[in-house]
Design a protein that fits this description.
This protein is mainly alpha-helical. It is 63% helix and 2% strand. Strands 1-2 form a two-stranded antiparallel sheet. Strand 1 and strand 2 (573-578) form a beta hairpin. The longest helix has 36 residues, at 75-110.
């Protein structure tokens, strides 16, 4: 074939790929999209919208606590706001937004054109969206849950919390966890089977390893919560007494809840570790120090994270032997975390890092997370925990861990991958200002809470008496929370302004090493025009010619949606997998599932209707048809 004929053939092939992988335009067609970049971006945007709502609720709480005996909110409203803040941050923001980054980035990092089950991906998003809307509709109707995001019985039982608030909690929490589970299963299958040829397990980027461990943790951690919330729903609606003192045990709920709840901290934290590694590699322009120790540390955190839940229950009257075991395991998890920090420091050591905004967020994460980790070792000690339990010391600790360990790396990841998402750069000047305001505001807000806790101020209270010595600290914290919010708002402004005015990014503006930077920014609907093999852990940095010198995979059809499946360990090509195209049925199945769950709170006839609708939607979903061939 001559050069001109080859170019013509290449252009025609590209146009064919665009037709095959295009998402249909229009409002109603929006509900049919299944491409991983579309669904991943929806998870990210929706997650950050819920984050903004959670921040607003936090500001309302700080407004209430700014002065003693404040009547800005009554106790009932405060309890709903306080509960929804926790539910939002833990269920509607942290896990979904991490999964959103994973859904968008992981297929690109693996060099594939989509995920393994694109319709399942879309179904998970709609479940998540509907669940979030239902929770906030309950808040607007003033029937939101009011027993905290943990909802301990007997407070959460029908006797002490009548009304629909806790019914919403038990039903919607169960419902929304479907979303996290299907996304986790999809990510596991994609990581194991869709790696580009040559990307063996020991060449996978650390972010991919982190998402893989996170996904397995979701699969094992969420079912206990689903079972527990179903049991609590049966307690409330059918008088089953699983968690009542009369014939059940309220402590059982705490075991089941924290068997999910504490691993959830690491479900949020572990993908952030992968983001930190990606950013450090790129901005030092050198391979990571200790790739294998870092990967093993991530896996170790995933295992040990399931052995810590009882340290939330040291004051519940547990046997001494059990308390000692969980004290040891709680302290032990600091070891793999420390290994990673030392590896990152070793990577930075002697390099000439570029102090761009993503790396600034990583450096901020170092300081904040280390403080949170040290206070975590303190509360892992039974004698100290007995004193600090249910005080503001614990509030300070878990915000240092969760915001420092997850939100700062997440913001760094946002600045880092924003050029890939949009094709434009965010403002560095505004980004650095936003970072310093956020960093200062965060520490001014949460560090004084250690002192408040040591002075005995209990958490989960809507007000406090004058004359206890807490007035100045609470006012200072409330003012500082406004500074913290200002920093977050500057990042939001940067995101919005840069959409139109940001500099054009190009394919690889950071000179990064992983495959998502080998395609255009933003990626085309088919992700990659050519599927190239890789022969290195850092494919864009390997050899003298980089990825362009590597062989191209042939034989994948461009006239229908098709991906290459490879072996798990060595990533040898095994098969071609055709994928389904756009479809409305994932959306309708999510709606039918929502009707089934919501009907449980109203009348038993409604779930029966929901089952029928689910059957219809599933039938439409799997109805045999010829796989689409683009014309």
């Amino acid at each position: 074939m001559t050069d001109s004929a080859s170019i013509h053939h290449d252009d025609e092939e590209t146009r064919q790929l665009e037709r095959t992988w295009a998402s249909p335009p229009g409002f109603f067609a929006w509900f049919t999209h299944v491409n991983q970049t579309n669904i991943g971006m929806r998870f990210i945007v929706t997650g950050f919208i819920f984050f903004i709502l959670g921040v607003i609720l936090a500001l309302l709480m700080r407004l209430q606590l700014a002065v003693p005996e404040n009547d800005f909110m009554d106790p009932e409203t405060y309890n709903q706001v306080f509960s929804m803040h926790g539910i939002t941050m833990m269920f509607l923001f942290a896990i979904p937004v991490m999964e959103g980054f994973a859904v968008y980035i992981i297929p690109l990092m693996l060099g594939t054109r989509d995920m393994t089950f694109p319709r399942l991906n879309a179904f998970g998003y709609y479940i998540y969206l509907i669940a979030g809307v239902m929770m906030y509709a309950a808040l607007l109707l003033r029937i939101a849950p009011d027993a905290g995001w943990f909802s301990y019985p007997p407070l959460a039982g029908a006797s002490f919390s009548p009304g629909l608030g806790l019914d919403f909690y038990t039903t919607v929490v169960t419902f929304m966890e479907i979303s996290a589970l299907v996304a986790a299963i999809e990510l596991i299958a994609t990581i194991f089977k869709c790696k580009v040829p040559g990307m063996s397990l020991n060449r996978m980027p650390i972010f991919v390893w982190a998402v893989l461990v996170m996904s397995f943790m979701i699969v094992f951690a969420l079912p206990p919560l689903v079972i527990a919330s179903l049991m609590l729903a049966l307690d409330r609606m059918a008088g089953m007494h699983f968690f009542t003192a009369a014939s059940g045990d309220p402590i059982l709920w705490q075991h089941l809840f924290w068997f999910f709840g504490h691993p959830e901290v690491y479900i949020i934290f572990i993908p952030a570790l992968g983001m930190v590694s990606s950013i450090i590699i790129t901005f030092t322009q050198r391979p990571i120090f200790g790739y294998i120790p870092i990967v093993l540390s991530i896996v170790a955190i995933g295992f040990i994270g399931f052995g810590l839940w009882v340290h939330h229950m040291f004051t519940a009257g547990l046997p001494q032997l059990g308390s000692n075991f969980f004290t040891a395991s709680s302290a032990m998890i600091a070891i793999p975390s420390g290994v990673q920090i030392f590896c990152w420091i070793a990577t930075l050591w002697g390099s000439k890092p570029k102090l761009a905004t993503p790396l600034l967020h990583v450096l901020g994460f170092f300081l904040i997370f280390i403080i949170g980790g040290l206070s975590g070792v303190m509360v892992a000690s039974v004698p100290f925990d007995m004193q600090a339990h249910d005080t503001y010391f614990v509030v300070a600790h878990f915000h240092y861990v969760l915001i420092g360990g997850a939100v700062f790396p997440l913001l760094g990841g946002l600045y880092y991958w924003y050029p890939k998402f949009t094709g434009r750069m965010m403002s560095e000047r505004l980004g650095k200002v936003a970072f310093w305001v956020t960093f200062a505001g965060f520490n001014l807000t949460f560090f004084p809470m250690h002192k408040l806790g040591l002075e005995g101020m209990p958490r989960r209270v809507y007000t406090y008496l004058d004359g206890l010595g807490w007035n100045e600290a609470n006012l200072f914290i409330s003012i500082s929370s406004a500074v913290f919010t200002l920093g977050l708002m500057l990042t939001l402004v940067n995101v919005l302004i840069s959409l139109k005015r940001g500099n054009i990014a190009g394919d690889n503006p950071w000179n990064a090493d992983t495959l998502e930077w080998a395609t255009s920014s933003p990626p085309p609907s088919y992700n990659f025009r050519h599927i190239r093999t890789v022969d290195s852990r850092y494919p864009l940095w390997s050899g003298t010619g980089g990825l362009e010198q590597n062989p191209v995979v042939t034989g994948i059809r461009s006239d229908r949606r098709e991906i290459l499946l490879t072996s798990i360990l060595e990533s040898h090509p095994e098969a071609r997998q055709p994928l389904p195209g756009p479809s409305p049925w994932p959306f309708w199945l999510a709606v039918a599932t929502a009707i089934t769950f919501a009907g449980l709170m109203a009348h038993l006839a409604i779930p029966l209707l929901g089952f029928v609708l689910c059957f219809i939607a599933i039938t439409g979903w799997v109805w045999p048809k010829r796989l689409g061939v683009a014309k």
